[in-house]
């Protein structure tokens, strides 16, 4: 059984080369193999196989024994992924420090001010339209805090949420304990739903970048006094996400 193109592309995106994928795939199918046998089965040139095996072992995807000749074996994909993830996070952290230490002083010295895209929205219809647009365009993760009066928005957004669920988007919804039970049941089929007593206000965070924060009264019909902020700003979205996760801590899972 060969690895699907979808999985192959996913492995490439996390840093595995074509030769590494072919080598790991061969070990998964055949079990323990010597470098010579691996070269034949995977199609990786013998002149490259030891280099490929070395990098795969460093990345945590394979192991080897003390026999002669040495035999190699595949580790659990979960182990390989976790090792790769930790290495990527460590590398990012180190590079982040280097970049910030040199570039932040240059940025501050230049006197340039950041110009994030921030809009003030008014009226329930306009705000609901923007939220539905964000849900529809989401690619990886969406987090929604929904007060009781947002039941109508749930009905409008449900088809879009189902579509996101089918695409593998991670959906988390925090809602009021006063929300209609049928509405909660409907969204729990496509999202991780948690209930918080006395939830006040609401908002949505999409792909850790786009955010809508409700500032005015609760959503209920057309209300010109309802105001919200929409922003395309990773910093603001990150702050909102931290607060969202704080609210989740003492919420009840459906």
Task: For this entry, give a set of tags.
alpha+beta, eight-stranded mixed sheet, three-stranded antiparallel sheet
Rg over alpha carbons: 25 Å
| Poorly predicted tracts of residues | 218-224
Strand line-up in the sheet with most strands: 4-10-9-8-5-6-7-11
* Order of helix and strand elements from N to C terminus: HHEHHEEHEHEHEHEEEEHE
Compute the separation of the termini in Å.
Answer: 39 Å
Helix vs. strand class: alpha+beta
Please provide the count of β strands.
Answer: 11
Share of residues in strands = 15-25%
Shape: elongated
Q: Largest sheet, if any?
A: 8 strands, mixed
Q: Residue share in helices?
A: 40-55%
Please tell me the overall pLDDT.
Answer: 86
Number of helices: 9
Question: What this model shows, in words?
Answer:
The chain has 9 helices and 11 strands. Helix content is 52%, strand content 20%. Helix 2 (18-30) crosses helix 3, helix 2 (18-30) crosses helix 4 (46-58) and helix 3 (35-42) packs across helix 4 (46-58).
Q: What's the short version?
A:
This protein is α+β, with helices and mostly antiparallel strands and 254 residues long.
Write the layout of secondary structure elements.
Elements: H1 5-13, H2 18-30, E1 33-34, H3 35-42, H4 46-58, E2 62-64, E3 71-74, H5 77-110, E4 117-122, H6 124-137, E5 141-146, H7 151-166, E6 170-176, H8 181-188, E7 192-196, E8 203-206, E9 210-214, E10 227-232, H9 234-249, E11 252-253
Parallel strand pairs: 5-6, 6-7
Antiparallel strand pairs: 1-3, 2-3, 4-10, 5-8, 7-11, 8-9, 9-10
Helix pairs in contact: 2-3, 2-4, 3-4, 6-7
């Amino acid at each position: 059984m060969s690895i699907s193109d979808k999985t192959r592309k996913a492995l490439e995106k996390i840093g595995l080369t074509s030769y590494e994928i072919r080598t790991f795939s061969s070990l998964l199918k055949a079990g323990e193999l010597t470098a010579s046998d691996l070269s034949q089965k995977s199609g990786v040139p013998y002149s490259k196989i030891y280099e490929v095996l070395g990098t795969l072992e460093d990345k945590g995807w394979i192991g080897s024994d003390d026999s002669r000749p040495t035999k190699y074996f595949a580790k659990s994909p979960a182990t390989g992924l976790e090792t790769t993830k930790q290495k990527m996070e460590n590398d990012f952290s180190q590079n982040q420090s280097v970049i910030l230490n040199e570039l932040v002083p240059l940025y501050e010295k230049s006197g340039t001010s950041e110009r994030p895209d921030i809009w003030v929205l008014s009226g329930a219809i306009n705000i609901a339209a923007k939220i539905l647009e964000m849900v529809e365009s989401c690619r990886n993760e969406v987090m929604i805090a929904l007060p009781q009066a947002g039941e109508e928005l749930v009905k409008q957004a449900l088809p879009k949420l189902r579509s996101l669920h089918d695409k593998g988007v991670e959906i988390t919804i925090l809602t009021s304990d006063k929300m209609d039970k049928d509405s909660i049941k409907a969204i729990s089929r496509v999202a991780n739903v948690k209930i918080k007593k006395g939830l006040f206000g609401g908002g949505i965070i999409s792909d850790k970048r786009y955010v809508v924060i409700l500032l005015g009264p609760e959503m209920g019909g057309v209300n010109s006094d309802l105001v919200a902020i929409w922003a395309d700003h990773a910093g603001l979205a990150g702050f909102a996400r931290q607060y969202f996760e704080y609210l989740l801590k003492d919420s009840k899972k459906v």
